[in-house]
Amino acid sequence: MSISGHTVRVNNLDLNVHIEGEGPAVLLLHGFPDSNALWRHLIPALSAAGYTVIAPDQRGFGESDAPAGVEHYRAATLVSDAIALLDALNISTAHLVGHDYGALVGWMLAGLHGERFLSYTALSVGHPAAYVAAGGKQKRMTRFRGFFLVRGLSEAILRAGNWMAFRRLVRHHPETTHWIKDLSRPGRLTAAINWYRANIRIISTATGVPRVGIPVMGVWSSQDLALAEDQMINSAQHVDNTFRYERLDGCSHWIPLDRPETTIALLLDFLTKQAKPSLAH
Q: Which of 25, 156, 194, 245 is the most exposed place for a label (fewest CB within 10 A)?
């Protein structure tokens, strides 16, 4: 399931990009195993509040192209996609919001290209350096990463028994049926897992991820299946600007789907407190 939009040619790929509203730009980056449908509750609210919302299906997901090969999913390439997309749309600066692997890309964008972003909101995933330094609970929660590195076998196990292992992995979230439909298309499950395979060094060592100099809000949920709280709280140590932390109790990993009204309220409050942004044009 994906929200249809414009086809934008970026780095020799066609990306499906939903664009809605008028005003300062807000770039929304989803993660695994989502599409831009992750943001479907937020987009109308942000648009109504006077923002131009840019919600791409990132490469390998939704209706965007999914090139074969792990090398096409390295973080540097994903970062390049986002900058190239802003350039293609003639947007000089934007607010940035990322979830899951989209949050990892967001941290890199905020650190490497801070001049292009007015603020960064990280949902679920903290700064990679804080993630790597997190305690034993975090390491226990992400043991599944090693399973993803076994090419072919991990795909087969996830599909087996009507995707039972995948259903358990995502704890039977209500979105599961949509995810399975998307990932059942040829090459799509491998493309999604390649995000992990291509970036294991970054998520294991935080290599190449800089400090962040723009305002950041980190949002973590107490029922997250893969992320511990300390990796978000300690992200403040890697931000050379204001860092705001928000905890949502009783909410799963998929914050924008489970608590859309709360997410919208937090985001609008945070965005309005930043310096007046440049308009998209």
A: 156
CB 219 within 8 A of CB 263: yes
Pairing outcome for strands 25-29 and 94-99: parallel
CA-CA-CA-CA torsion sign (36, 40, 46, 50): positive
Give the residue among 147, 129, 121, 139 at the shortest CA–CA distance from 227.
139
Residue 166's Cβ-side half-sphere holds a number of Cα atoms within 13 Å equal to: 26
pLDDT band at residue 147 under the 50/70/90 scheme: confident
CB 236 within 8 A of CB 243: yes
- Tell me the residue type at 19: I
pLDDT digits (tens, 9 = 90+) for 11-45: 999 999 999 999 999 999 999 999 999 999 999 99
pLDDT at 278: 43
Q: Which residues pair with 20 in a beta bridge?
A: 53
Separation in Å, CA 152 to CA 23, 170, 184, 233: 45, 20, 14, 36
Contact 107, 41 (CB under 8 A): no
Per the CB < 8 A criterion, the answer to whether 35 and 157 are in contact is: no
d(CA 148, CA 113): 30
Q: Which two tokens stand for residue 44?
A: 């109308």
For the chain, the residue count is: 281
Answer positive or negative: Cα dihedral of 221, 223, 225, 226. Answer: positive
Specify the pLDDT at position 70.
97
Q: What is the model's pTM?
A: 0.95
Q: What are phi and psi of 18, to 5 degrees?
A: -90, 125
**Cα separation, 105 vs 253, whole angstroms:** 17
Query: Which residue type, as a one-letter code, is found at position 247?
Result: R
State which H helix or E strand residue 268 sits in: helix 260-272
State mean pLDDT over 113-130: 97
